[in-house]
């Protein structure tokens, strides 16, 4: 199978031609011997699988070279602990980072296939729920690109975030068996497995040194089996890995049950054990679900710490030196049980004294906080913890006792503040505060945007700042430009590179050079053409996915993110209803055509979020079929929002909705993705919106609504949403349409809870912000009609997005928290060239 098209081959450099010859041989081998196909019966799916195995070979070669280098140089390593890694699709990202996109494109065209069609057969690895998991994925890309010896640790869920289906306007959840057809780029490490225990009891003994020692005797044991996903750096030879653990039973089946004919009972233990890695975020509204969730957290950290210590001992025996060679970042509180687990290993297995063990632990871990909402901070019932992890509970009690004794002796906290910093929450039901454990047991604690980092020091961790003023710092989130520009929007990336070169691919600050061309009429025309082409493609996607025809020249107004009341998708749809009312009252009125797009999933047990999805779809059904509206307003809900869908929506967007209640969003990263792709932001002064405003200037962003301090003051004064509704007749009428079943004739009363929540409580202040939001949206509509001015704003948003690269974020982590050097760049065999369409 040889590419015999001379015209195609002339497009390649000499190095790429050499790569092409090598790739052809590997590809032909995998096509015939790995997946058992020949050239007479090939489909796109076959090409995808063979190509995945071919690129896997290439990645493993570089992975082995990278780790040989790490073994020789023995640098400090970073281990990123996260229960979520929202990787999306992997193959195209690997081709771009490895510099092989064009070579593979030529190879496949030579045999009659298009790479873009082949790549569509990859299923998203939906091993995360939202921004938390996507941030982890971006960080892995940046660590490899910057040659940081950095590795991810998580769980290989059999079923990722559910597939969302919309039926009669409502969300239905279907299983996401993301690996059903195999994962060609996965490396199964059958030789790497560790035992993880649960339940049982602790015993005490006197050691040979005369010390009282503790031993945990688990009742249940599970094996954690390693699966690696190579992470290639961009334009470097470095390939790190994401290691995910799959749960395996320590025994295939109980032979005694089997011999007595009870076949189901014989395999029951195996099934229960392997449930640990079955599903991302099991429903924890039941006791069984809570146990499984805590099991998952401990399973991941226990296996990962064993793996880290095993690797560490290959080069260094002295555990006191561990902080000089190992840094562990806790992505939220989910893996914070690792602090107690490492103490258990040091105290029980290594027979260390408490003080030196604690000193090592508190220099190894760092903790990233992702919320300012107290109710979102993870806690566990002591009773449950004691049942599942009895030895760890003893250690947590000891950590807490020593910490509180020290704090009381210093006399810097009041009794009320001491209660707030305690790991144990007292009351009718004692609970373990995992965030407090993470703060006490970590070397550094960071927020993920300047506003967020400031808020956590003033609110949830205020007392801790008196004890540990040096611990707290900010690391504003970022996104990888390889995924969110080069991969998702190659036409825009090429336009940019023609004007300023390719340096922006690894240093996004180079985008600042685009400001030179902001008044260039030819560049503006090229910019508009790229954006319009992306909008045309988005219109085709919407038609194929939903059957809805939109005007691709309309203002494309997008809110895609996890559904939660604080993110205020409800505020957006209320304003859409208001627009609809204005059209119905005056069918001939002139207005800027607008397409409002929603996408996102609600947690299966989150009733109100699912009801808001239902409302959006019901509103869309009526508006999109009303002849009075025509093409002036369309509402679209794109189902099953995921990374690969975001990559198609964001390039075609004009307006990015970032409208959370001020003081509730930690950072946000979708705001950065839209900005990098030339969309303008409408938003509150919340999360990273504050820093986006600082970068682009107030004339290039649309900020509205209450500020954080005003939100706090209004709530303290006794906020009454009904007061705002009574002052706004249009808002009142919008709410009446909801209450009086205008959008639910066939299901009367279904939206009553939405009306009641807005009228009587309105926890996220939609009524207080509605007028400001509406007026700002009117300004957006007017500005959009000025084509030249809007284009300039779009160019400046991209030009000033350099701060929001995850490369910048990782450089700051490496310097300020992990204290790891960026290793010298290792030039790759193939130098990156922007992919051409």
Automatic annotation (TrEMBL):
Q: Which InterPro entries does this chain map to?
A: Glycg_phsphrylas, Glyco_trans_35, Pyridoxal_P_attach_site
Function text: Allosteric enzyme that catalyzes the rate-limiting step in glycogen catabolism, the phosphorolytic cleavage of glycogen to produce glucose-1-phosphate, and plays a central role in maintaining cellular and organismal glucose homeostasis.
**Which cofactors does it use?**
pyridoxal 5'-phosphate
Recorded hits in Pfam families, A to Z, give: Phosphorylase
From which source organism is this entry? Leptospira soteropolitanensis
Protein name, as recorded: Alpha-1,4 glucan phosphorylase
Recorded family membership: Belongs to the glycogen phosphorylase family.
The chemistry this enzyme catalyses reads: [(1->4)-alpha-D-glucosyl](n) + phosphate = [(1->4)-alpha-D-glucosyl](n-1) + alpha-D-glucose 1-phosphate
Name the keywords, alphabetized.
Answer: Carbohydrate metabolism, Glycosyltransferase, Pyridoxal phosphate, Transferase
Catalytic class of the enzyme: transferase
